[in-house]
Structure formats: structure tokens, C-alpha cells
Amino acid sequence: MSKFPLIAVALLVAPTPVLAQIVFQEPAPKAPAKAALAAANTKSDLDNLECRMVDVTGSRVKKQQVCLTKQQWWSYEQEDKQKLQEMQIIGSTSH
């Protein structure tokens, strides 16, 4: 039996405890500036969450609470208006 594999294993195992004791010290994280926190915490009015009760499709009495930002509600209403206009155009051309 050759001594080479034993020596190689001994060399690989020996430095492991030495490396395990190395400690890297990082400086403590700095607190963000108050101005940066204030800017991050300020939201525009369009980012505020608004909850509404909407009718459930296929039911006369059921309603469901839906929460979206004001920007999302505006977009949702614009899509509804667009669909309504398209249906009115299609309905007026079929007569």
C-alpha cells in the first residue's frame, strides 16, 4: 500500500481547523440618512391602497372586497370605459 494517499488526505484535513477559526469582521452597518428615509416613506397619492366592494360575476347579491392602489383603480376604470365604448360602437353598427 502506498503512503501517498495517506499523506494527501493528511494534508487536506490538517488545514481545516485553522481555516475554521478565521473570523472576518465587518464594520457595523450605518443607519441610513434621515432624508433618505423620509423620501422612501413618502408615497404619492396614487400609491395609497384603496379597498372597494365589487359585484361578483354570476351573482345578484354577492360582493367581493378588492384592494388596489388608486393608480390601479384608475387603470381598471379606463379599461371598463374603453370596453363600453367598443360595445356601443359594435351595437350601433349592427342596427
Descriptive tags:
single chain, 95 residues, alpha+beta, two-stranded antiparallel sheet, 4 helices, elongated
Task: Give an overview in words.
The model has no long low-confidence stretch (mean pLDDT 75). The protein is elongated and about 100 Å long. Strands 1-2 form a two-stranded antiparallel ribbon. The longest helix is centred in the last third of the chain and has 24 residues, at 70-93. The protein is 51% helix and 15% strand. With 95 residues, it is of the alpha+beta class.
Helix and strand arrangement:
Blueprint (H helix, E strand, L loop, with lengths): L3 H10 L1 H6 L13 H8 L7 E7 L7 E7 H24 L2
Antiparallel strand pairs: 1-2
Quick structural overview:
The protein has helices spanning 4-13, 15-20, 34-41, 70-93; strands spanning 49-55, 63-69. With 95 residues, it is an alpha+beta fold.
Helix proportion? 40-55%
Shape: elongated
Strand content: 5-15%
State Rg: 33 Å
Low-pLDDT stretches: none
Order of helices and strands: HHHEEH
Class inferred from helices and paired strands: alpha+beta
